[in-house]
Amino acid sequence: MDKQQAQHLLDELKKGILEVISVEKEDFMTFREVLTKREDFKHFRGTALRGGGCMYQYTDEPRS
Length: 64
What we know:
The protein is an alpha+beta fold. Strand 2 (44-48) and strand 3 form a beta hairpin. The protein has helices at 3-15, 28-36; strands at residues 21-23, 44-48, 54-58. The protein contains 2 helices and 3 strands. It has one domain (3-58). It has a 3-stranded antiparallel β-sheet.
């Protein structure tokens, strides 16, 4: 996954086109770099998965 793909997935998640994004272990650092630079960063909730991957969802309320 490159930065442009990560940005596209995050945009689709925010728009409701996707409900969940699954990020593999090898793509995590690139994905995280794009995610943390977004203004709406706190609206994304990540859950660690067994094996090193993560699953992300978009929430209406930002986390604290």
